[in-house]
Design brief:
The complex is a heterodimer of chains A (about 775) and B (about 210).
Chain A lengths: L14 H5 L15 E7 L5 E7 L1 H5 L3 E6 L24 E2 L11 E2 L5 E7 L2 H8 L3 E6 L6 H5 L14 E9 L2 H7 L2 E9 L11 E7 L4 E6 L4 H12 L6 E4 L16 H13 L3 E4 L2 H7 L6 E9 L5 E13 L7 H9 L8 E10 L13 H19 L3 H8 L8 E6 L5 E4 L4 H12 L1 H14 L3 E13 L5 E7 L5 E5 L8 H13 L6 E5 L16 H28 L6 E4 L2 E4 L2 E7 H8 L14 E7 L5 E13 L6 E11 L6 H21 L30 E5 L21 H12 L9 E2 L3 H9 L6
Helix pairs in contact in A: 9-10, 10-18, 14-15, 15-16, 17-18
Chain B lengths: L1 E8 L3 H8 L2 H7 L3 E8 L2 E10 L2 E15 L3 E10 L2 E13 L5 E12 L1 H4 L2 H32 L11 H17 L14 H12 L5
Antiparallel strand pairs in B: 1-7, 2-3, 3-4, 4-5, 5-6, 6-7
Helix pairs in contact in B: 1-4, 2-4, 4-5, 4-6
Classes of the chains: A alpha+beta (about 775), B alpha+beta (about 210).
Chain lengths: ~775, ~210
């Protein structure tokens, strides 16, 4: 096999369709006779529902049906857990409380759905919402994590003794003993708050029940169409073969579109069956703030213990993780935080006490980064503070503590989000750090430029941090590769696509195996009628798990092609080569047969297929990694701060990524750019602000600031390639990496820019306001 | 959200007290008020249209007056709900006879706000509510002056002319623009929550109450 396309910077084949508005998104689906759904959502964060009067809404012309929890009968059930419960984990406390389709007796967060209207238009449906009278009895609210755990706090779930959803302690070595021996112990409180995923396309669903064929088709902005189909079939009492879920082009996933079985995803298809009418629901932007899950809220009381020369002896933290009103996503996020709190460093002693807390706020589920940015922020901040105390520079202290390249696979001796041992498959961290430092000109900036600019009165700072990212986790993905009679290749896989360039990078893999152009490879993703085994697009796993399944299927097809061509051309397989859609005899290029002809030979209209063989040039294969492939990297930035307005300007941004073998470096860089943009939001702009009563105070894009072109700099990307030994392609994920280190980097650079104020940044996101308060709470020391 | 302020009425304390306990007067003091009725000795129910920036809609609410020490002080509890959200709060109102024929009203309270009012109107609500309270009290003061002068001249009371809803909205917008433009200047002393009604008004305004 020649490596003609894999690893090339090919432009994305799907872009012309996307850029000219020709790609299908859920809202493009129009079906005659379609109804529109609108949901009534609670204004209260915590209240009993005394009664709901829907009579006026029901009587509005154009309203077809209005449902409350009382009307759902047996269909009213708690949603399925989205990940397995951690009951196999030793010593874990875990109370599963999953969400319900409509709140029945009480509402637990602002935005929880209490009724749904199906009407002839969205306008009518929304007008009808205003006519539904809900009699609430407001209850005391818990919004703050610490308060939620105090004795006597109002209970989010009355059947539990407290608001503690889960408790787990993880240990490696003996932190207390390590602390005794330490020359320096740094202790800090570190707080990370919530943000929104902020996908450009909000969520949407179209459900179509065909009564005659007894078949449900649902277009859904999901990242995981197959689990949605399987879950829906079960919930609706249908056979899986009666349900087809299609995730067409999706305008950004970022986690909250994985598969939620929140109100909309179950009630829209249910309503379509009840009413025998197609139904559409498209979330609007304001609704997105209340109806789509969020992430990141955690409070850490953390310690790091070191020797005088900067060697880490141990890390310890007790932290509270905000799961919101329900916990359908189990422990994935806080376990990811634990898995990244030792980051790239050889930490011999670790103690982590995690408490997951129910609050009267929106449910949290993974958002690009998924618990990892919190762990990285914690470790990098502690390391920076320690470096300052010890008089070391940030580069030196990191180099001193990296896991050495010959120590892989490296077992961190705790469990990861799959409850399996946290093992880093491979890594080489120092070259990425050195490359980032070289690209940004670290030494020159610190020695020459910064002193000069400071003398001019400018507040400029530099930052450099490292990170790891566990990617490409199981259980598995699959793919079917088929050579068609036209000679074109069709590839089907179960993962959905939300802009990752799958149509191009996956085609590159197949093209190399089968000797065709990637443009002759047609990929179908996210349609359960095309492929119905798999889990979905999340955890930076497409380029690892799906890619390797596609690679394996393509290899099988290649073997079939060679076997058949060997017969047809009467030449041994070793003497054949695949190129340009042909199989040729290597030495006699004129002696060849096209893939199309071979496909016809393999699927004859007359005669017999030999016993023990299968028709067609087709193969299905699966790939399931033993454990995840761990990517890594270092980011660096130069920032300028205006100490009057606290506005920042990012002068340079460098990201060096190591995601193993790159399928397409151009696409990897695009992923990094997007991740960094999200990370900048998480660092300085995007914070969901809740008041003590659980009210979200900035639920609009006027008040919730998503970084725009003026805040996002040009990102210079460098690459290192440390192959993963776990899979044949050697790839690791890159989807979330860009977002992960940014808050830590931002904090270090801000501190450096404001060195004369000697501030410590211990929270993310920061904001101009918060920085102003921090600065003016201190005496300028110079 | 905390609400507090002072307002000077040009009239004796007893008259001010009567005024604030008169739902009809209160209802006219705040344009947008559709109704305000006394439903019990110390309970009022009302309906009001509210607009704060992009948030608009009808509110209905209830005010309960307690700890009443006529004509000096009382506690107001307000609860209002409507399409734009809800508000809930309690506040204390004190009337002080200043000895010169004027009455100083002091008010202080805590308000919880929810729904669209909180999530979208947040930036505007502080200024808008202050403006609405001030205008409501100004209107009350005019009503008071009309009453006092009618009494003094022995004539029949002349109906004072309450501001229209449009005038009212324009004044709120002006106040909000002023707030944005000048950061340092001392603001007009806002008043407020006068009595229950004022509170009602405040509730309505701030939070909302009203609908009917």
């Amino acid at each position: 096999m020649t490596k003609k396309y894999l690893g090339q910077r090919m432009t994305r084949t799907e872009d012309p369709r996307l850029l000219t508005g020709q790609a299908l998104f859920v809202d493009d689906v129009e079906i005659p006779g379609m109804l529109y759904a609108a949901f009534l959502r609670s204004d209260y964060a915590h209240a009993l529902i005394r009664s709901i009067d829907v009579s006026a809404a029901q009587n509005r012309p154009g309203v077809v049906a209005v449902y409350t929890a009382q009307d759902l009968g047996d269909f009213w059930q708690h949603g399925p857990p989205l990940v397995p419960a951690p009951h196999s984990v030793e010593g874990v406390v875990f109370h599963s409380r999953t969400q319900v389709p409509l709140a029945k007796d009480k509402v637990r967060y602002v935005g929880e759905a209490v009724a749904v209207v199906f009407a002839e238009s969205r306008y009518i449906a929304e007008d009808a919402l205003e006519e539904i009278a809900v009699d609430y009895e407001p209850l005391e609210t818990v919004a703050d994590l610490e308060r939620a755990l105090e004795a006597g706090a109002p209970l989010v779930h009355d059947d539990l003794d407290s608001n503690m959803a889960s408790h787990l302690v993880q240990r490696k070595g003996d932190y207390a003993a390590a602390r005794e021996k330490a020359d320096l112990v740094i202790k800090r409180r570190i707080v990370i708050d919530r943000g929104a995923a902020g996908a450009m396309e909000n969520r949407g669903i179209v459900a179509h029940w065909d009564e005659k064929s007894q078949h449900l088709t649902m277009w859904d902005t999901t990242q995981a169409p197959i689990p949605v189909r399987n879950g829906l079939a079960k919930i609706l009492g249908l056979s899986e073969s009666q349900v087809r879920v299609i995730a067409p082009f999706v305008g950004g996933g970022f986690g909250p579109k994985i598969m939620m079985f929140l109100a909309e995803e179950v009630l829209v298809p249910w309503g379509a069956i009840q009413l025998n009418r197609p139904i559409k629901w498209i979330e609007d932007r304001r609704e997105n703030f209340f109806a789509t899950t969020q992430e990141r809220g955690q409070t850490h009381d953390a310690e790091i213990a070191l020797t005088r020369d900067g060697r880490i002896l141990g890390v310890s933290h007790e932290f509270l993780h905000d799961t919101g009103a329900y916990n359908p996503y189990g422990l994935t996020i806080p376990l990811n935080t634990q898995s990244h709190s030792m980051s790239a460093y050889d930490v011999a002693n670790y103690y982590s006490d995690m408490k997951v807390v129910f609050t009267n706020k929106m449910i949290t589920t993974p958002v690009r980064g998924a618990g990892r940015p919190q762990g990285i922020f914690l470790m990098e901040r502690l390391l920076d503070i320690a470096a300052k105390e010890l008089g070391k520079d940030p580069i030196e202290i990191r180099k001193r503590n990296y896991i050495p390249p010959d120590a892989f696979p490296y077992n961190h001796e705790i469990i990861d989000q799959a409850f399996a041992p946290l093992v880093f498959d491979s890594g080489n961290y120092r070259p990425a750090l050195e490359k980032a430092a070289a690209m940004i000109g670290y030494e020159k900036f610190v020695k020459e430029e910064q002193p000069r600019l400071r003398a001019e009165g400018q507040h400029v700072g530099i930052g450099i941090v490292s990170f790891v990212e566990t990617t490409g986790v199981g259980p598995y993905e699959g793919s079917r590769v088929t050579v068609e009679a036209s000679g074109k290749i069709s590839v089907a896989t179960g993962v959905g696509t939300q802009g990752q360039g799958h149509f191009t990078s996956f085609a590159q893999i197949v093209a190399d195996q089968l000797g065709v152009s990637p443009r002759d490879v047609r990929l179908v993703t996210g349609d359960t009628s095309e492929f119905h085994w798999g889990t979905g697009t999340f955890a930076s796993r497409g380029s690892v798990v799906a890619a390797n399944a596609i690679h394996a299927a393509a290899k099988s097809v290649r073997a079939k092609i060679l076997r058949l061509a060997s017969k047809a051309l009467e030449t041994p397989e070793e003497e054949l080569e695949l190129d340009d859609g042909q199989v040729r005899v290597a030495d006699i290029p004129r002696q060849s047969i096209s893939l199309g002809e071979l496909a016809v030979l393999a699927n004859p209209l007359r005669g017999a297929v030999e016993p023990g063989t299968e028709p067609g040039l087709e193969a299905t294969a699966y790939y399931g990694p033993q454990y995840g492939a761990t990517a890594s990297g270092s980011h660096a930035m130069i920032i300028k701060v205006d100490p009057e307005t606290m506005m920042v300007e990012i002068k340079r941004y460098v990201a060096v990524e190591d995601c193993g073998t790159m399928l397409n470096p151009l696409i990897v860089e695009g992923q990094v750019h997007g991740g960094v943009a999200l990370g900048i939001g998480n660092s300085y702009y995007e914070q969901l602000i809740y008041d003590d009563n659980g009210q979200l105070l900035n639920a609009s894009l006027a008040d919730y600031l998503i970084p725009s072109a003026t805040e996002v700099p040009r990102v210079e990307v460098g690459h290192e390639e440390t192959r993963s030994p776990l899979n044949e392609l050697g790839s690791k994920g890159a989807g979330e990496a860009g977002a992960i280190p940014v808050p830590a980097l931002f904090a270090q650079a801000l501190e450096d820019a404001l060195a004369d104020y000697n501030v410590e940044i211990l929270e993310a996101p920061m904001s101009p306001n918060k920085l102003f308060e921090l600065l003016h709470g201190k005496e300028k020391e110079q | 959200m905390k609400i507090e302020g002072e307002y000077v009425f040009n009239g004796p304390r007893e008259e001010v007290w009567k005024l604030v306990r008169d739902p009809e007067v209160l209802a006219t003091a705040l344009p947008g008020t559709q109704s305000l009725e006394q439903v019990g000795e110390n309970e009022y129910e009302g309906a009001m249209n509210v607009r704060i920036g992009p948030v608009a809609g009808a509110f209905s609410g209830r005010i309960v007056v307690s700890n009443e020490v006529a004509p000096e002080s009382c506690t107001l509890s307000v609860e209002g709900r409507g399409k734009p959200g809800f508000a809930k709060g309690t506040g204390d109102v004190h009337l002080l006879d200043q000895g010169d024929g004027t009455t100083l009203m002091k008010y202080e309270g805590e308000m919880q706000i929810g729904g669209r009012l909180a999530s979208v109107g947040q930036r505007l609500i502080d200024t808008a509510s202050k403006s609405m309270i001030r205008q409501g009290l100004d209107a009350l003061n005019e009503a008071l002056e009309a009453r006092v002068s009618a009494k003094a001249t022995g004539q029949e009371e002349i109906e004072y002319e309450a501001p229209s809803e449009a005038e009212f909205a324009a004044a709120v917008a002006r106040d909000m623009a002023g707030e944005m433009l000048s950061s340092a200047r001392a603001r007009i002393i806002l008043i407020v929550l006068a009595i229950a009604i004022v509170i009602v008004i405040a509730a309505v305004v701030l939070t909302n109450s009203g609908g009917g």
